[in-house]
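User: What would this chain look like folded?
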Amino acid sequence: MNRRDFLRFSGATIAASAGCFSIAARAYPTRPVRVIVPFAAGGPNDLAARVLAQKLTERLGNTFYVENIGGAGGNIGTGQAAKAIPDGHTLLFAAPSYAVNPMLFTKVPYDPLTSFEPITMVVTAPTILTVHPSLAVRTVKELVTFILNNPSASSYASPGIGTPPHLLGELFRITVAPNLVHIPFSGGGPAIASTVAGHTPISFGALPPAVPHVRDGKLRALAVTSADASSALPGVPTVAEAGYPDIVADIWSAVLTPAGTPRAVIESLHREISIVIRMPEVQERMAALGYRPIGNSPEDCKAQIAAEIVKWKKVIQVAGIKVE
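Assistant: Here's the prediction, encoded as structure tokens.
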């Protein structure tokens, strides 16, 4: 084959490949799309996934349905998603556990950096630091002073070992309050209930279940842990505004697809999800769940997950956290 024929052949091959990807994007989806939520139904992550799935169904003409595959802190569902055919018809609605579980468990069925292709960070939400109203503190600095002076009376509740609120609580303890004691519970509801009852005077938890108790005066909100204040609790500062800029963290939800999914399908999904999360009714529903819509690029999403791994690896190592 001479040079001219080679170039002609190469150009035709590239054009054909591009055409295949274009056709793949136009045809997608060709059947119902499974959105795996690796947790039980009913939590904020699950509800956000259902909002997204409903709107994608309406826009793309094929059903996007949520399948809850809980167990092992999200590892079982994530492992099943990792083994799916990489064609965009199985998606993972990932949460922070996706990034940290490989550091918490002896073995997990996926690699957070290579098993999936990120599509977008859909939403983020802050964790909230609350105390029982009987505690004589009204700011984070006052709480730190209280903990240092009253180690035997300073414990915090979390939804369980390795959960985002637990990791944040340990970041808080390592950074400013070494006397703080962790009391794990089996879920966010029992953890908040313990602080409402005054059994554990401090709580780190997800925003949505805490807000009603704050509004009813059963909990006192000292700060949210996001970079920006939450519209759900006007007047409650961020931890950075309270004087602790190193204790900033978000709970997040991202859409991922198994590694090897065609780029055209990833771009199509990213475009459609970005449109959906900009819809006023979707933003309203996400806000009601305590979420802030994001919709960043696949590259930015990948970088954000990588940064999460680096950040929490240090906390997990220093605190000596292990699930098994």
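The chain has eleven helices and ten strands. If you want, I can go into more detail on any region.
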